[in-house]
Amino acid sequence: MATSCYLVYVIIELMIPRAEILVGATVYDDKEKQAVNEVLDGGWLGVGKYADKFEKRVAKYVGHKYGIVTNSGSSALLLAVQALNLPQGSKVIVCAAGFPATVAPILHAGLIPVFVDAEMTSYSIDPHEIIQAYRSQENIQAIVFAHTVGNVADIDTIKNLARDYELYIIEDICDALGAKWRDQQVGSFGDIACLSFYPSHHITAGGLGGMCLTSNEQYAKTIISLRDWGKMHETPEYYNAYNTETKYYIDIDGINYDYRYSYSHVGYNLKPSDMNCAFGLAQMDRLGDFITKRNYNFGELELL
C-alpha cells in the first residue's frame, strides 16, 4: 500500500508543470547588439573609446573621479586590494558570510583575512564585530566588505570606525549598483569600490566585466598598471592620449624609453574588450528601469 501511494505521488509530481524563476537575468535588445556592431565595424576590439565612456559614466553615477574597467568583478577586487600596497602579513577584516572573491585577493596579496560575522537583518558585515576584531587583533589595516545582495551595510558606523582606527575601506558593490545610503550612492564611501557586470547583476557588459572606482589618482594609476601587464602609465586616460611624438618620455638612468613598453609593476592582463564596454554602456541606459523593477519584485516577494 505504501509503495502504491508513493508511485501515485511521483506521477502527480511529474505531471505538474514547473516554471523556473530566476533571481536575476540578462535583459537586452537591439540597442546592445547595435553597440557591439559599432565596435566591430570600427576595427578596434581592445580597450578603447567605449571603455573610456563606460568608465566615466559609471564613475560619475557612483560618485568617483576614476573608473577602471576590468574583465570581472573578481579581477576588480584583486586589483583594488593590491593597489593599497599593504605590507606582507597585514590583516584585513572581511565578512565570514560572503563570496570567495572578497577573500581570495587578500590571500593573493600575502595578507591575512580576519573573519567577522554578518548582521542577521541585512546579511552584510556587522560593525560591532569589526570593533571586537580590531580590539583583539594587531596589525589590522583595512576592511573589505560587500553590500550583500543589495542590502546596504551600516555605512555610518563603518566609516567612523575606519576613521578612528585609520583603516582603508574597499566596498564591494557587485550586488548593489544604484543602492543608496542617506541619498548617497553606495560605493562612494570607501577608498576603492568594486563592481561586477556578471549576467545576473544589475547590468552586464556582454556576460562579464567589472570595474574599480576611486577618487585617488595614485590608486587609479596603480590599478591600470596592474591590469595592463604592469605597464607604466602616466594617467588613467593613457589609452586615449596616445601621441607618437611624445611616446619616448620615460627617463631611466638618463635614457628615454617608450612608455608603452616600460613596466613599473608585476601585473596581469585583466582587460575586457571594447565590445563588452559598448554593451555595458548601452545597459547603463536601462539601469534606472532595472532598479525600479528589482525593487518592485522584491516588494512582491516580501509579501509572500
Description:
- By secondary structure, this protein is an alpha/beta fold.
- The longest helix is centred in the last third of the chain and has 16 residues, at 287-302.
- Strands 1-9-8-5-4-2-3 form a seven-stranded mixed beta sheet, with helices on both faces. A two-stranded antiparallel sheet has the order 6-7.
- It starts with a helix and ends with a helix.
- 38% of the residues lie in helices and 16% in strands.
- The chain has ten helices and eleven strands.
Indicate the mean pLDDT.
89
Helix fraction?
25-40%
Strand content: 15-25%
Quote the distance from N terminus to C terminus. Answer: 36 Å
Order of helices and strands: HHHEHEHEHEHEEEEEHEEHH
Structural class: alpha/beta
* Low-confidence sequence ranges: 239-243
Write down the overall geometry.
Answer: flat
Radius of gyration: 22 Å
Give a count of the beta strands, DSSP E runs of length 2 or more.
11
Tally of helical segments? 10
Give the strand line-up of the largest sheet.
1-9-8-5-4-2-3
Largest sheet: 7 strands, mixed
Summarize the structure.
The protein has 304 residues and is α/β, with parallel strands linked by helices. The chain contains ten helices and eleven strands.
List the helices and strands and how they pair.
Blueprint: H1 2-15, H2 30-42, H3 49-62, E1 66-70, H4 73-83, E2 91-95, H5 104-108, E3 112-116, H6 127-136, E4 140-146, H7 155-165, E5 168-172, E6 180-181, E7 184-185, E8 192-196, E9 210-214, H8 217-227, E10 248-252, E11 255-258, H9 274-284, H10 287-302
Parallel strand pairs: 2-3, 2-4, 4-5, 5-8
Antiparallel strand pairs: 1-9, 6-7, 8-9, 10-11
